[in-house]
Amino acid sequence: IPDVDSGYPKSVYPTAWTPGSPLPAATEAYPLGNGFPDVNEYTMKFGVIIPSTNTTVEYDYWSMIMRNREACAGIGFHMSGILIDAPKLATDQDMLNFLAMFRKQLFSTVDRLMTAEPQYIIMGMSLETFFGGWEGNKELKAEITERTGLNVATGAEACKAALNKFGAKRVSIITPYQEIGDKNVVKFFTEIGFEVVRIAGLKCGSATDIAHVPEKWCEEVVKEHLNVPGIDAIVQCGTNLSMIDLSDRLEHELGLPVIAINTACLWFGMREAGITTKLQGCGRLFREF
Length: 289
Hints:
This protein has 289 residues and is α/β, with parallel strands linked by helices. It has one domain: Rossmann fold (3-Layer(aba) Sandwich). It has helices at residues 57-66, 92-114, 127-130, 133-148, 155-166, 179-191, 215-226, 244-254, 261-272, 284-288, and strands at residues 12-17, 24-29, 44-51, 75-82, 120-123, 152-153, 170-175, 195-201, 233-236, 258-260. The strands form 3 sheets. It has a 4-stranded parallel β-sheet, sandwiched between helices. The longest helix has 23 residues, at 92-114. 38% of the residues are buried.
């Protein structure tokens, strides 16, 4: 975690004015000592990378923080959006084109994010972190860390850590993806030692479509098709698909961990950054671990 406080703020205060002039004639510098933190984000300043089409991650993250406002005082987020100028996801080829755009725009987005001097980076996207299996996820993290010098949380790694906390081995998964996306999700979880019993891809037609999927649709898919005998947990992929509230409710109804990816990413990032605060209203993961 880098020191982002030393030397800040470089500021002065006026001590004298010349008669007839509104501008101060003399100033003195404030004593800085060891420096002062960001007034709002004095506990942790997270940088979050999202697709420009994503309208859910920022809302979900702040929702979890604000419903635990006192416990999370001083935690904040600075978002930087990767330009997605062709968000269509109606076919497998569309999805590959989407990933190509992501790679093309990644470093310029990271560079913009770093101007805010974050202390830790969260990847507020999941599909890109599942492609290529575990090695692909590691390579993506390494590229961003090399560019920024910061630790990085990815959706793929966060889901792995969450499932390990629950001791889960057999899972069902809901995604907004086309078949090629679902195949890479299955490949990822299989490679890291989990058995994917069922996966249900909603095959959303575009990246912006995903945020419009009604909660009721997700609830029906989970209850009627993914809650099958013998599974240990249900995982939701796709960060533009908001399930932080639904997952919390379903855990009580089904008696299973239901891991919403936005919950998992924020939990993983906070724990890696040394923040052990347990949050309420965000599912078992934040309450128990």
